[in-house]
Backbone:
């Protein structure tokens, strides 16, 4: 009995110790980010250098899987203890900004002479730095999608490489020629292409839109939108040039590409370094622009760094944000991870362009930036995206037409928009 | 004279007794104080608070906005995900409860036959029910992989074509049912205890009358454990409505076409992902009313089919 | 008659053996996959990997600081266990042995809280803890146990009722106060029930996922359940490592179960019958 009581007391003391912060007269900043092992190493070395020039600040890096950063920021802000700085994604930046999760940075930028906001690509600043006209985050990289293709496979099939003249028809016919059953077992093992990871791109390329220009109504039920999506789904279900859910649920289309079983793969510039470098062994690959629909368009987004509005050390956090979006980090990221910098000076400096590794035609990513379309900057962006994706999954599986899916989804999105102020 | 003094002693005794009673009452209250405090702090007050929150629009960051019953009206008239969540949860209960209850009952009956090795079997069957949900879900994620998962591999031996499991809206929910069937050992233990309290004389008398195994089961076993069945049914329904960990780990976005959007998963999304606390609180209250209603309904109709030995 | 009996016996045996096989197979896969080399993970025909990669375990455990997570989980679980036992038995004693006005009403209220789904109170309680500045600490996970749990109070009360009162009265004549009776007389006799509660409480807190998910933010504070989930997010493609990590998380419960089985069974049985 006495033993139990002492045990309890000891445990409670232990847990109290577990939750007290370290006694330090340095200021403690917590920064959350996502990334794989290599990106983590880059981040840590950068933070170490920051620590050298800022001895009064101690920075703690918390790596979180990309899919969970949003949840983490929301809950921890509601709980009252968010991190001080976080890397944020353009996908849910507006949702967070609307809720004032982030500190407004206009004053910081205006009063800090060492920081040049004009060096950044305006597409990025407007796309995922500003919300309702106010600056909430500093973009750190640009994620623009183009098409990787398997050069060796194209050579073998005798097809010319994709280029700026391609439109949807050329794309489809090339994909058809590349789709085959290579070992004669009756099942297709090599596909021409996979779907763009962002279904929104197809809509934009067809001249359609997700929301009306005033962002108050959903326009997915208009022909330009659902016809584009139908074309996308047909790639799997009718034309059969893209692998379906079963194959992709298993390994993912990326592994199919790196294994040499996919002719064309749409992704961002970072994929070359993150995955292809280690995993592509038997063939050569390169990059090309996305084919034109009615117009040329592609998904564009990226990361940014923001200060959480509940941080207790905002001035120091600003120093950290400046560093993380500074020229050194961006050059390093460009060289190490083939991430497109958000600073024009770094992009043009050749840190990205002059790399010697594949894809040789990497300039195409920079050229696609002007065709980039960001996702609608609404507050309910995250929820809207999930609702649409859930329904779209059925269309991709071929269980219903995209016309039906879009007609079902449009009123639901309109509801979300109505209630999200 | 004598009467007076005996009355006096009685009064004194009464006084002493009531003092003792008061002392005992006070001590009683002291003993239950931790629970009472906990009840007020973690049950009563939060319940009231939660109802009040459900009348507002609040994200815990900006101040709350009173909107009356708008959340409730939205939920009932416009919210397709609410209906979907109810449908998913009800479908899950309808699939997993009958199968699970029948299965665990049969297992319990077999264990109750006191064959050799019963203890070992009991251990084996009960084990899955005590394992951490997260770990179990990881295991099943792997088993249910469409292309190279072992379940499809084994089905191939039975000449059944591979199923797409979690990635397909028609098979995602059945995946959860299968997972739940792996854990029927929990219910089995309860049935076992119930079975063991059935007096043997009943069976012996029936055997003398020439009753076969099936008759014995139907006429003796089932009625005698009907209270246990009732208990398992109620707990099972409440449990179905509270499935969270498995659905959150396997399909955090609710599955293709929201086919595995369990009610509590939806509630969690609204509360902790979109920070719509008022709406989520309304969902929670509706959940409470549903569970309460179902339980009362079952209890009320149970008079007809549950046999209580003491009710004679 | 005898033929019938043997028929049923054989039927039962066969079914149970098949059933046991079905139940154990996933566990077999778990262990088998945890020892596979990455290249073999998707080869379902391989049951016993050759060579067995025991280093999967060391790799999985080193990628994340599982030792710290183990300590976190232990601190939370054991604190909760101790607090629950003390507070629940105090309340159960009050309900079982003491008479005070309103006792029956309060007990009915206690039982009715068993019907209250946790989700109803989850949000306000989150707000209260965060308002007190205790988000991202262990306090929200441990403190509720200090106030007793309705289910365990119920179990213990039923058990206390079956403990004969003679010893109580003897002690009282010797001048013992009520608290001493609780501590020295009733509690030692309630060891079986207390063991059951200890075991059930251990299981429920060790496996708890939702509360740590909501209240803990710092990766260093993760419990094993959270860590496993985070592991999956980060290394979802390394199935062999994931299975190894899952096995490790399951192991303490498996051990506890094998050694203290009857307490699990007892507790479940105790609760099911008296409802």
Residues:
């Amino acid at each position: 009995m006495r033993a139990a009581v002492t045990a309890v007391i000891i445990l409670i003391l232990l847990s109290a110790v577990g939750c007290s912060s370290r006694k330090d007269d340095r200021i403690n900043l917590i920064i959350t980010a996502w990334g794989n092992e290599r990106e983590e190493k880059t981040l840590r070395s950068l933070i170490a250098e920051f620590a050298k020039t800022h001895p009064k600040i101690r920075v703690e890096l918390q790596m979180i899987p990309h899919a969970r950063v949003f949840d983490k920021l929301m809950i921890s802000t509601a709980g009252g203890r968010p991190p001080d700085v976080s890397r944020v994604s353009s996908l849910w930046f507006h949702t967070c900004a609307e809720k004032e999760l982030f500190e407004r940075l206009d004053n910081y930028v205006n009063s800090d002479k060492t920081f040049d906001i004009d060096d950044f690509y305006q597409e990025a600043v407007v796309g995922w730095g500003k919300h309702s006209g106010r600056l909430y985050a500093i973009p750190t990289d640009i994620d623009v999608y183009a098409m990787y293709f398997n050069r060796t496979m194209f050579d073998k099939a005798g097809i010319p490489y994709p280029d700026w003249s391609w439109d949807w028809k050329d794309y489809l016919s090339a994909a058809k020629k590349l789709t085959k059953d290579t070992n004669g077992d009756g099942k297709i093992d090599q596909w021409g292409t996979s779907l763009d990871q962002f279904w929104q791109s197809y809509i934009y390329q067809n001249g359609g839109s997700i929301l009306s220009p005033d962002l108050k109504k959903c326009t997915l039920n208009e022909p330009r939108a659902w016809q584009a999506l139908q074309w996308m789904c047909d790639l799997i279900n009718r034309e059969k040039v893209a692998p379906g859910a079963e194959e992709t649920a298993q390994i993912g289309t990326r592994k199919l590409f790196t294994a040499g079983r996919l002719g064309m793969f749409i992704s961002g510039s970072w994929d070359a370094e993150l995955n292809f470098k280690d995993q592509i062994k038997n063939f050569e690959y390169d990059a090309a622009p996305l084919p034109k629909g009615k117009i040329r368009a592609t998904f564009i987004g990226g990361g940014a760094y923001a200060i959480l509005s509940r941080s207790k050390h905002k001035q120091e956090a600003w120093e950290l944000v400046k560093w993380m979006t500074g020229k050194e980090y961006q050059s390093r990221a460009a060289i190490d991870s083939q991430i497109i910098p958000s600073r024009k000076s770094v992009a043009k400096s050749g840190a990205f362009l002059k790399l010697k590794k594949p894809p040789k035609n990497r300039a195409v990513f920079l050229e696609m930036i002007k065709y980039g379309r960001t996702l609608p900057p609404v507050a309910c962006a995250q929820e809207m995206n999930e609702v649409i994706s859930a329904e779209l999954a059925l269309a991709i599986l071929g269980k219903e037409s995209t016309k039906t899916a879009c007609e079902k989804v449009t009123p639901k999105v309109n509801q979300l928009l109505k209630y999200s102020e | 004279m004598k009467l007076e003094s005996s009355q006096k002693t009685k009064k004194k005794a009464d006084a002493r007794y009531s003092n003792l009673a008061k002392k005992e009452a006070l001590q009683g209250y002291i003993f239950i104080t931790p629970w009472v405090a906990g009840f007020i702090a973690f049950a009563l007050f939060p319940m009231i608070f939660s109802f009040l929150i459900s009348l507002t629009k609040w994200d815990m960051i900006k101040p709350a906005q009173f909107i009356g019953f708008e959340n409730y009206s939205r939920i009932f008239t416009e919210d397709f995900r609410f209906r979907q969540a109810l449908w998913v949860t009800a479908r899950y209960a309808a699939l997993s409860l009958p199968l699970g209850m029948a299965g665990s009952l049969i297992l319990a009956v077999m264990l109750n036959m006191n064959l050799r090795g019963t203890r070992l079997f009991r251990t084996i069957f009960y084990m899955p029910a005590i394992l951490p949900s997260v770990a179990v879900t990881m295991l099943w994620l792997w088993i249910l992989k469409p292309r190279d998962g072992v379940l499809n591999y084994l089905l191939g031996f039975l000449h059944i074509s591979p199923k797409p499991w979690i990635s397909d809206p028609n098979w995602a929910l059945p995946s959860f049912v299968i997972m739940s069937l792996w854990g029927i050992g929990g219910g089995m233990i309860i049935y076992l205890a119930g079975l063991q309290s059935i007096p043997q004389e009943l069976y012996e008398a029936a055997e003398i009358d020439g009753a076969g195994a099936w008759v014995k089961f139907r006429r003796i076993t089932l009625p005698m454990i009907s209270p246990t069945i009732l208990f398992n049914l109620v707990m099972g329904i409440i449990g179905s409505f509270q499935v969270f960990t498995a659905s959150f780990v396997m399909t955090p976005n609710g599955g293709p076409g929201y086919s595995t959007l369990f009610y509590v998963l939806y509630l969690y999304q609204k509360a902790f992902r979109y920070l719509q606390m008022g709406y989520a609180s309304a969902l929670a209250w509706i959940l409470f009313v549903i569970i309460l209603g179902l339980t009362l309904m079952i209890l009320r109709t149970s008079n007809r089919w549950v046999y209580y030995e003491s009710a004679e | 008659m005898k033929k019938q009996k043997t028929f049923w016996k054989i039927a039962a045996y066969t079914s149970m053996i098949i059933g046991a096989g079905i139940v154990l197979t996933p566990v077999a896969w778990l262990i088998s996959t945890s020892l596979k080399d990455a290249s073999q993970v998707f080869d379902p025909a391989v049951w016993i990997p050759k060579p067995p990669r025991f280093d999967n375990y060391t790799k999985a455990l080193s990628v994340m600081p599982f030792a710290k997570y183990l300590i976190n989980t232990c601190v939370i679980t054991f604190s909760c266990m101790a607090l629950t036992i003390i507070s629940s038995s105090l309340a159960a004693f009050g309900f079982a042995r003491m008479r005070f006005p309103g006792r029956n009403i309060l007990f009915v209220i206690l039982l009715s809280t068993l019907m209250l789904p946790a989700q109803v109170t989850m949000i306000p309680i989150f707000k209260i803890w965060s308002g007190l500045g205790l988000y991202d600490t262990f306090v929200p996970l441990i403190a509720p146990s200090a106030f007793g749990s309705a289910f365990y109070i119920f179990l213990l009360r039923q058990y206390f009722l079956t403990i004969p009162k003679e010893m109580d009265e003897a002690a009282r004549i010797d001048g013992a106060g009520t608290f001493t009776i609780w501590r020295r007389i009733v509690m030692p006799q309630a060891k079986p029930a207390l063991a059951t509660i200890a075991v059930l409480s251990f299981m429920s807190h060790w496996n708890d996922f939702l509360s740590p998910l909501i209240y803990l933010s710092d990766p260093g504070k993760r419990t094993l359940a959270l860590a496993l989930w985070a592991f999956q997010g980060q290394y979802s493609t390394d199935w062999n490592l994931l299975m190894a990590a899952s096995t490790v998380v399951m192991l303490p419960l498996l051990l506890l179960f094998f050694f203290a089985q009857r307490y699990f069974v007892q507790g479940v049985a105790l609760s099911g019958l008296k409802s």
